[in-house]
Amino acid sequence: MNTPEPLEVTIESRSDLCRAYMPFVRGGGVFVPTNRHYELGDDVNLAFTLFESGGPVAVSGTVVWVTPNRAQGKRMAGVGVRFNADDGLRAHLEGLLAGISGGDEPTHTL
């Protein structure tokens, strides 16, 4: 069985991170725009690149949210991925978001 290519996630700014980060997911998670088909519970590998880092980091996760193509409200198609390991990624992302008011800014999920 072939392992699927990792989903590439590039977060280019703090505001992009604010829209993609899923604080309501236990262990942390991010929304990943994709047209690939996934089901809830699917295991995925991410190639995760942050605006303040040099290159992609391999992150494993589980699909916990699905926004299908042609979703209501013209929402971007993609999946929410919960991080599988408690390797400090959630704390790092929340540190980057510290002091940023999400307020009325729309996110890719809720």
Note the overall shape: globular
Task: Please give the radius of gyration in angstroms.
Answer: 13 Å
* Overall pLDDT level: 85
Helices and strands: which structural class?
alpha+beta
Strand order of the largest sheet: 1-3-4-5-2
Tell me the span between the first and last alpha carbons.
35 Å
- Main sheet record: 5 strands, mixed
Strand tally: 5
Q: What's the helix-strand series?
A: EHEEEEH
Q: pLDDT under 50 segments (min length 5)?
A: none
Give the helix level as a range of percent. 10-25%
The proportion of strand residues reads 25-35%
How many DSSP H or I helices? 2
Question: How does this structure look, described?
Answer:
- With 110 residues, the protein is an alpha+beta fold.
- 15% of the residues lie in helices and 32% in strands.
- It has two helices and five strands; from the N terminus they run E-H-E-E-E-E-H.
- Strands 1-3-4-5-2 form a five-stranded mixed β-sheet, covered by helices on one side.
- A hairpin with a 6-residue loop joins strand 3 and strand 4.
- The radius of gyration is 13 Å and the shape is globular.
